[in-house]
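name: query_chain
kind: protein
chains: 1
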Amino acid sequence: MNEVTYTLKTLPKNTDHHKGPLEASVVIVEYGDFQCPFCSATAKVLDKIFKTYIDVCVIFRHFPLLATHANAAMAAVASEAAAKQGKFWEMHQALFDSQDDLSTENILSLARTLGLNMRTYLNDLEDEDLLKRVRQDMDHGMNNGVFTTPTIFVNGVRFEGLPTFEGLGQEIDQILTDNQTFI
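structure:
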């Protein structure tokens, strides 16, 4: 039986939510869902990776599992509305920290806590372009063979298994040692 290697078809771009330079030696793309407990754990791992390794870029793309997570799409749009005020990563963290209660009321409370302009934020939550952005990420995910969350690509190659600091660290160390380039 041949092992399937999924190669990222939707390359990173400036409009992606990213920490670190897109030109980094190691680019990690995560397709995630704010209601997924494994994505919450992965967010902590990726944060540690980002803080540990100098030449790494971490990208988050939306992949709400609509059939199983009723509030995931709304949370994704909420993060996009926060992004319009420069607070995507802060909302990203807040949503994962509060993933047991992603009700509208709690999301609005998180937005207030982050110091967002609430009038603007409420208007942005109704912006159809933000929902289109989430759907575009989902479409890209499906085109890249994403079926579940979290799905991680490291330098364009799908990382198999649950992402751990040790597992991703080994992958990153190998890329850096071999001086590999993205895809």
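note: The mean pLDDT is 94.
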